[in-house]
Amino acid sequence: MLHKLHRLSACVLASFILVHLLNHLFAIQGVDAHIGFMESFRSIYRQTLVEALLLGCVLFQVGSGLVFLRRRWGQRSGFFDRLQALSGAYLAFFFLNHVGAVLFGRLVLGLDTNVYYAAAGMHVNPFQYFFVPYYFLAVVAVFGHVACALHWLLREKLALPNRNLLGYGMLLAGAVAGLLIVLALAGQLYPLTIPAEYLETYQIF
Ligand code: HEM
User: Fold this and answer.
1) Ligand 1 site: residues with CB under 6 angstroms?
2) For the segment 155-176, what is each residue's pLDDT rounded down to a tens digit?
3) In which residue ranges of the chain is pLDDT below 50?
């Protein structure tokens, strides 16, 4: 039962995350493209009911994921079985931090949590050493986690070499997408000037 709910909640989250990551890929084109896409996408996920469902799924996904991690602790074998636990653990850490930071930025700091909010940490020394791997690994973990689920779900339909190929291919796609997003946000694809109000949030450190 818990597995079924975990999968159902994963589908709700995946439909958001897919478009959310596509949104971040728009940063390759430029800040205006990213902001334009986010503003239209917000008209859907910022609706009270949709956002409540999304945040509820985040909490449920983290909680149920941690239960699975504990249940099979020390019993996993094989690359994709271990990667599922590792990517899930990272996503639990990332989800809580990321959503907490977004809500804090919006409700406490009163900022528009747009692309500048996401990128600011990469433009204040030494925070880039945290934010670059933090975001890169999040994208890889999403692709990796889905790859592991497919590796398992397709076990009766696809031969092992084909499932392995699909899994490694998805990991590679995640690494390329993560790298492109991080390069754009770090200002390595074109000059990116972060407005002062976003940089000021780091002054307390
Ligand atoms: C490079 C990676 C990422 C960046 C730069 C990023 C950035 C952002 C930003 C700026 C927001 C605020 C959106 C708004 O104000 O409308 C946001 C919201 C959110 N992100 Fe991400 N994100 C990334 C990856 C992810 C991943 C991998 C996940 C899931 C595993 C995720 C889950 C969420 C969720 C659940 C929200 C809250 C939506 C809401 O209710 O407002 N993000 N993200």
Assistant:
1) 17, 20, 24, 38, 42, 45, 51, 54-55, 58, 91, 95, 98-99, 102, 113, 117-118, 135, 138-139, 142, 181
2) 999 999 999 999 999 999 999 9
3) none
Task: Please state the three-class secondary structure of the chain as a single string.
Answer: CHHHHHHHHHHHHHHHHHHHHHHHHHHHCCHHHHHHHHHHHHHHHCCHHHHHHHHHHHHHHHHHHHHHHHHCCCCCCCHHHHHHHHHHHHHHHHHHHHHHHHHHHHHHCCCCCCHHHHHHHHHCCCCHHHHHHHHHHHHHHHHHHHHHHHHHHCCCCCCHHHHHHHHHHHHHHHHHHHHHHHHHHCCCCCCCCCCHHHHHHHCCC
Calculate how far, in angstroms, residue 151's C-alpha sits from the geometric centre of ligand 1.
26
Provide the domain count of the chain. Answer: 1
Distance 156 CA to ligand 1 centre (A): 34
pLDDT at 127: 97
Stated pTM of the model: 0.95
Nearest residue (by CA) to ligand 1, atom 14, is 113
Which domain range does residue 97 map to?
2-202
Query: Residue 178 has what pLDDT?
Result: 98
pLDDT at 59: 97
What CATH number corresponds to the domain at position 179? Answer: 1.20.1300
Distance separating alpha carbons of residues 200 and 205, to the nearest angstrom: 10
